Amino acid sequence: MTTVTLSGLQVRVQDKTAFQSLDEYYKLCYDFLSFVNRQQLTPIVSPNRHHYIFYQFDQFYGYRITRPINTNLFIEDANSFNEEFNQFLSFLDDVKSDRDDVIRRPYVSAYLQSRGVHKVIYTIQQSIGCVGDSFDNSNQSRKRVGQLFEIFIRLIIQRLGLDCDSRTITLPLPGYPDHEMSFELDLVFSKGSTLVVAETRTLHEKEIIASVKTTSKDRLDKIFLDKHLLSHILGRNVPVVAIFLHDVQRSRFGNSPFGISSTFKSNHFLGYTIALNGLDGVYYVDLPESVIGKQFYEQIKDLQTFLIRDIWVLTA
């Protein structure tokens, strides 16, 4: 059996032909967790958020530090992750086959309360992110890590039986027939209409746009603006949802460089909602503590809510 190395994981993350199935995401994550256990990487605990940790790689990788990891969601044991992943796939298949009644099943209710969906998605994506953090220049991997999260969410939505893919559309500007504006859309999903409009490179009325980012930092404005512009240009409300992994970053806390701070800008979120238009859903895997139980509750939810209920309301 080949020993998993960090350099080997780096090659796999950079491979543009990989990650075309959920199984490939599983394998990368399982191997990373096995690597961490075998190397006995000592976690660094954040001084102000004790449930967040960091891993530090060895001298060969410049003692680089990973991104913050929420241990309430991150599955550290590879064998436990294997069990959780199988449950995750079963859950998705059950939702696909019986979405109207699946929530009434006792095991599903217990599974959702355990946050099993969030744990699997978070562990997989943060494992990919940690591998990305090991590169000489993390900027070279940041875009790839974001792309892989987008593909990951696409595969999950497709597993539910919906059409879902990325798309670039070009629309004529009203009143200026010789001018067009292009929009690169992370994901467009629907019940069976995507293939109909793929050749026209536009949007069907039954299609929903999903902006998928690892964090909302420096990205909120574009998401709100895209919805505003698309709705104005097409002359109808264009449904847009946002899906984020988390909204935390490493920051200094006292004398420690391992503090945790939020990157969610509540005033910006409210300002865009009031001045432009509200989004049709904002979903997190690691929900920011600053929004729990506050005025954002109706607008910002966890990703489980999206998969079990809201996605079906949007595509009805």
Q: What report would you give on this structure?
A:
By secondary structure, the protein is of the alpha/beta class. The chain has 2 domains: 4-156, no CATH class; 161-313, no CATH class. The protein has 10 helices and 11 strands. It has helices at 6-14, 22-39, 78-97, 106-113, 116-133, 138-159, 194-197, 220-234, 266-275, 303-314; strands at 44-45, 52-54, 69-70, 163-173, 176-190, 208-213, 240-244, 248-253, 256-262, 282-284, 300-302. The strands form 3 sheets. Strands 4-5-6-7-10-11 form a 6-stranded mixed β-sheet, sandwiched between helices. Strands 1-2-3 form a 3-stranded antiparallel β-sheet, with no helix packed on it. Strands 8-9 form a two-stranded antiparallel ribbon. Strand 1 (44-45) and strand 2 form a beta hairpin. The model is unreliable at 194-199 (pLDDT under 50).
Write the layout of secondary structure elements.
Elements: H1 6-14, H2 22-39, E1 44-45, E2 52-54, E3 69-70, H3 78-97, H4 106-113, H5 116-133, H6 138-159, E4 163-173, E5 176-190, H7 194-197, E6 208-213, H8 220-234, E7 240-244, E8 248-253, E9 256-262, H9 266-275, E10 282-284, E11 300-302, H10 303-314
Parallel strand pairs: 6-7, 7-10, 10-11
Antiparallel strand pairs: 1-2, 2-3, 4-5, 5-6, 8-9
Helix pairs in contact: 1-2, 2-3, 2-5, 3-5, 5-6, 8-9
